[in-house]
Amino acid sequence: MKAHERIAATVLLQCPDRVPLAPLLDHWAARYAGITNAVLMNDSEQRFNAVLKTAQDFRWDMTFLADTANVTLLKAGVPARIKLPGVDLPENSTHQFDEIGAMKDEDFDILERDGVLGLGTVLIPRIYPEMNIEQTLMDVDQAGKEITDQAIKLRAKGIEPAVGFVMPGPSFEYFCFARSVNKALLDIRKNPEKLKSAGKRFCEDILGLAILSSSQNAIQRVFIGLSRSSPVFLTSKHFEEFILPELDFLVHGLIDAHITPVFHCDTNWTKFLHYFKRFPKAKCIIELDSFTDIFKAKEVLKDHMAIMGDVPSTMLAEGSKGEVLDYCKRLIETIGKGGGFILSSGCSIPLNAKVDNVMAMTEAIEKWGWY
Amino acid sequence: MDQLAQAFSALEEDRVYQIIDEYLAVPSDPLVIVNELSKGMEEVGRLFKEDEYALGELVYSGEIFKGAMDKVKPFLKEGDDKPLGKVIMGTVEGDIHDLGKNIVITLLECSGFQVIDLGVDVPASKFVDAVRETGADLVGMSLLLTTAMDSLRQAVKSLNDAGLRSRVKIMIGGAPTSERLKEDVGADFYGRDAIEALAITKRFFNQ
Which residues, including other chains, have CB under 8 Å from residue A201's CB and lie 6 or more apart? Predict the structure, then answer.
């Protein structure tokens, strides 16, 4: 089977010829390819070359285009001040976000009235005084063209690009960056109706952007960020009231456009796994970062959606090759049983992951992953 | 005054302030209010532990507590708010995440501990200086990034090298931390979440 067929069969919950391998790649590509993180984040061509080298050397079926280390996309899409390697941090550090709370109370009205673009016009100069919305849009357009070209080049090498658009998630996820987590959590108590009405507009706009991007770059999968919506932060009551209606809207909108939603679940989602059964069968991927009980996820979602994960980042960084092999074997034998499983890292491969440990994922797939 | 603890643990913000206003409107002992708020906070912690509350409720309870204490503080006499213990908190070098750290700080302060917050991206030497300068007995080190584990090692090592480990204990917390990492770096306590960090602190100070 070809890589894209393997992934497609897995999403359909069928058994491909073997379990696909698709770790989440961003900063580690720089370390592996021998360039600095600063270069990886700022230079599109060198970023792609690093991604391609990594994906080829480790014989992956699918790879992220290090979208989450692309400065242009991060500055445009994440409403918090980014601290960059080579500028604010040593040139081989990972980037980090300073949630400065750029979005004020009155900005909810701007979002509701003028949409995501209108809000961006206000927030971007507030976060980055040297930037303006016109230049940002041109940069994003250029980045989009580069991704389209890179997807073609990647596919020519037999490797499937992972996602055509990185969606911050439901509006609450975006507000956690824009307002700060604490403020967004308090908004749920103190400003619930505004959160919902502005959130509705956010979702309409972000869904439109996701569909447009995916149609341009022909990558029919969209990443949906889910971190602060998790049961770690929210009770079931608040999740049902603020998150689920938006997730329903986004997921159905994507599926109607023939796009596969990829739920990128950070932190522990075990308690909320049953909610994912509401989404159409064999149409989605849930990606777990090792804090959710992936074995429980298999119990709950095995006949419903593909599961992707979840070799822990600490194991990749500090564990032994034997530990990684053992864990991957266990994942392949249990989560991979009957199909519907993509072996991946738990969230991104950490910058300090050992090469031998990343290769152990490949060796495990090639030894035990065949159906 | 049970109603105050109940209103607090139910996160009824307006009701909490109303009860306090009514109580303080006549000459009364403000420490009664502080004790009830602490009881309420203990109940919030229990509900969090039993999964009925999430971090959102912890953050909101901290907000209510601060609002309540703003009302009570003018009525406290000198010595009434003597801290139960002194704790240094910081996110280790190379990591600027502060959400978990700040929730722990809120809970510690609400429970009567004095916290010296060193902020984020804290170099090992700053932990050493802070222990020397403040005489704190407990240091909390937080991290989110896997890549910051080496900074954690360095911070613990620096306290060892400075000869301060006989007088100070170290607790660690954050996504990549674990009992195994605690043993590996030579820390004393590992808190899986903010409520555990509070429980560790209370046990440490015999509260």
Answer: A111, A112, A115, A116
Model pLDDT for residues A22-47, shown as the tens digit of each residue: 999 999 999 999 999 999 999 999 99
Residue A292: domain span:
26-49+64-307
Contact check, Cβ <8 Å, A96/B95: yes
Same structural domain for residues B65 and B95? no
Is residue B80 in a domain?
Answer: no
Quote the CA–CA distance of A207 and A228 in Å, as a whole number.
19
H-helix or E-strand spanning residue B189 = strand B189-190
CATH of the domain at B130: 3.40.50.280
Q: How far is CA B137 from the centre of its chain?
A: 14
Write down the ipTM of this complex.
0.90
Q: Which of B49, B146, B150, B182 to mutate to test the interface with A (most CBs of A within 10 A)?
A: B146
**Candidates B53, B57, B145; nearest CB to A94:** B145
For chain A, what is the radius of gyration of the CA atoms?
20
The pLDDT tens digits for A281-314 are 999 999 999 999 999 999 999 989 999 999 999 9
Where do we find the tokens 């959400």? Answer: B99
Q: Quick one: which of B5, B202, B86, B55 has its CA closest to A232?
A: B55
pTM greater than 0.90 (yes/no): yes
Rounded to whole angstroms, the Cα distance separating A244 from B171 reads 37
Q: Which of residues 150-169 of B touch A (CB under 8 A)?
A: 150
Is B97 near chain A, with CB under 8 Å? yes
